[in-house]
Amino acid sequence: MKFFSIDNIITSFIIITILVYFSEYFNIDFLDPIQNIIQDTDASDIVFSKIRDKEKVPYDTNIIIVNIGEYNRAEIADEIEIINKYHPKVVGIDAFFLEPKTEELDIPLINAIFKIKNLVLVSKIDSLDEKSGKYKTLIQSHSQFTAYGVCGFANFISDDEQLFRTVKKFSPKEYVNDSIQYAFAVVVSNIYNPKSTQKFLKRNNETEIINYKRFLNKYRVLDVNDIIEKQDSLGFIHNKIVLLGYLGPNIKTITNRDAFFTPMNDHYIGRTFPDMYGVLIHANIISMILEEDYINAMPTWLNNLLTFIICYFTMALFSYMRVKLKSLYEIFSILIIVFQLVFILFICLFLLHLFNFWMELKAVLFVLIIAEIVSESYHGSIKPIVIDAYNKFIRKTK
Amino acid sequence: MKAIKKEYKYIEIFKLRYGLFDGFFSLVLVFLAILIIPIILSLPIFLPIKNTIQDFQITDPTFSSIIDREIRSADTNIVLINIEDISNIQLAFTIQTLNQFSPKAIGINTIIKNGENPLSDTILAETLHNTKNIILSTRIIKNTQTNYNNIRSSSPIFLKDKNQGFSNLLINQDKKHFTVRQFQTRYINNYDTLLPFAVKLAQIVDSTKVKELYQRNNETETINWSDFKLTYSFDAMDVVDNPEYYGELVKNKIVLLGAFDPRKDDITYILQKRYFTPLNKHYSGRAFPDMYELEIHANIISMILHNNYFYTVPIYLTNLVAVILCFLNMLIFFYIRKRAEDWYELFSVILFVIQSLLLLFLTIVFFVFFKTELNLNLALLACAISSPIYEVYIKTMKPFIIRIYHIYIIKE
To answer: Residue A30 is nearest to which of B48, B364, B392, comparing CB atoms?
Structure first.
């Protein structure tokens, strides 16, 4: 009974093979509901949803969010004119102005945004070429508006469209044909604080996990009429980031157009309503960049290695117990699996909550769930049957 | 004198009577283990998981296959009329117009409050009083402080000898997190028995069908979504402005009035007005709700009038199946261990896979072809954990208990 034994290697290999090919072999339609739930959920969502104390998060005074409600372009222009008087450092507008409308609507808006010192408009990237990994289409507002500012794509790139708008990650930059496009939040941050943004971009990650901290109550928010009504007392706008976007007809009316599911949702799994507006997600990303408070994800290779190590260690432990603790093996093996599941989950939540370190847990949890079954099947059946068959074969040939 | 070390070597004997005993005790352990799961899930941090498990039904994806088969015979005798944002006087005109074309029944799925104009209220009250085949709705409002919920009705001026039915589709469950699959056939509140809005309407059209519903004696009934097809829905003011055209469409039909507009795809509106149903394209997890309350009531009415119910196997029967299946598993395990111990581990895994797939398959087949809800979740769970529990019992618990018995009680 050695730690490195052929039995442990074989059982680990079987488990890893099942892990890798399970979703292909068990791709049965009526199991889709279970698959959807498993794919949609991350154990770490519990940290954002239940563990982190949202009330203790400080206000982010760098960002002011302005609700454009159901305003038309001329009314948005009125808001911008007032905002401009207070010289914000950067104004980001999370709304599209795709086609020209009437002069009564467009001219005021053009005049207003012309005066903005640093304007960022949203764009949208589309038509991903799977082979090159580059996008083919960039959708922007009409050139009569984009001429006065820069653009950043507002898409929240999810690595699985089946997640139905649960936004956990975003892509800091993407290629559209051969040009680099940056995310809306990155462009805004870069204008406001280039040093922090460059430090963020130096991480050079394809996708970044969004470190959600704040709902609307932790930002300064101006509702649809507030700009007009309080236009003489908006001094706090000076030198700040102003984000204009949709927060409902007014922020007291809970609506969810342009809203998304995020890990901050009180129900981290299952049926629920969207919990965060798009502009608020951008605000959270900007806060993350400015505070330099990122979430570091365990690299895939390390995750795979950890999965294998845990798998092998568990198999070795089972082998040891089978010999040394024969009579207690059954109950101990179950207890060990339960303990490992709880322990690893605890470590994952602990690391994310205190150190902003994220581990992908699904593979490890899957391995632990099937470890006992595979170990028992191998040692109890497969190995004795194979040895028996081999011995019979040898006897026959002799 | 040396002290004799007490030892008892346990030797397993493969006799049937021991197999039966072992099977029985293992069975008890299985169901004890099953009882622990809800206790763990009661912790607040696991509440979303508990809600998801409670709301999950493996049969949801099959509803679309039922509907494809039966859509040709779907009921088109129910008309939905949107009365959102209309005043009481406009509602009165709508009902007066409808009355000219003798609909079978009219149901108003909103709580009618007093308007700003008392004259309009009087006209509406008079119109309602003169309309004999009309049902108003009530809402059951959760009261967290007492055991009894509150009942919210329309203003008293409109209620004069009018029949009402409660229109809640989910009682004590949040529509944000739960799917509407069943409706409650009655609600008892403080000694009053309330009937559902849809049932009251069906009663006007065909009281014998409603009697048959209550003869089934079920507290809840699973909604059969195949019977109703949304063929006609229009705005109230269209009816008033074009009575000749719309009148023919409501003649002899059941007319449901409520606040809904299927043309609106604004997410705000959808989240406020719609419910999750099993017809949702996203069977589980995150999604937007898919069906208006009025449509759901129409489905229920149609199901009652067509006698198109699901048969639900009684709980005691499904529990019995779980117990029998689990006990059979134990006997099979005993037999395999006796005859071919080398094959036991592999066999138990294969048996679990086959049983699970078979149970799921049977659940779906019975649901789709025989309109029967088998509800074999307990059986599935019991089969899943029967093998590990059996092994824990046979290899650990039983030898331990016997050893203790011989060393300390019999003192061998």
So the answer is: B364
3-class secondary-structure state, position A84: helix
Q: How far apart are CA A325 and CA A328, in angstroms?
A: 5
| A30–B contact, CB cutoff 8 A | yes
Locate the chain B residue with the closest alpha carbon to A379.
Answer: B345
A33 contacts B396? CB cut-off 8 A: no
Residue A75 phi, psi (nearest 5): -70, -35
Q: Which of residues 95-124 of A touch B (CB under 8 A)?
A: none
How high is the pLDDT of residue B12?
63
| Per-residue burial over B57-73, b = 16 or more CB atoms within 10 Å of its CB, e = otherwise | bbbbbbbeebbeeeeee
Per-residue pLDDT tens over the stretch B129-138: 999 899 999 9
Cβ separation A165–B286 shorter than 8 A: yes
d(CA B275, CA B179): 7
Three-state SS at A265: coil
**Which chain A residue shows the shortest CA-CA distance from B340?**
A381
Which residues partner with A297 through β-bridges? A358
Which positions in chain B touch A327 (Cβ < 8 Å)? 395-396, 399-400
The dihedral sign for the CA sequence B160, B166, B172, B173: negative
Measured CA to CA, the distance from residue B253 to residue B105 in angstroms comes to 7
Under 8 Å between Cβ of A79 and A93 = no
> Looking at chain A, which runs of residues are DSSP E strands?
60-67, 90-93, 119-129, 134-140, 150-153, 169-170, 173-176, 179-182, 208-209, 219-222, 241-245, 259-260, 276-277, 296-297, 357-358
pLDDT value at residue A163: 42
Is the pLDDT score of A54 beyond 90? no
DSSP SS3 for A221: strand
Question: What residue ranges in A257-312 does DSSP mark as E strands?
Answer: 259-260, 276-277, 296-297
CA nearest neighbour of B62 among A28, A163, A29, A162: A29
Q: What's the gap in Å between the CA of A111 and the closest CA on chain B?
A: 31
The distance in angstroms from the start CA to the end CA of chain B is: 19
pLDDT tens digits for range B338-371: 888 888 888 888 898 899 889 988 988 888 888 8
Residue B365 contacts residue A35 (beta carbons within 8 Å) = no
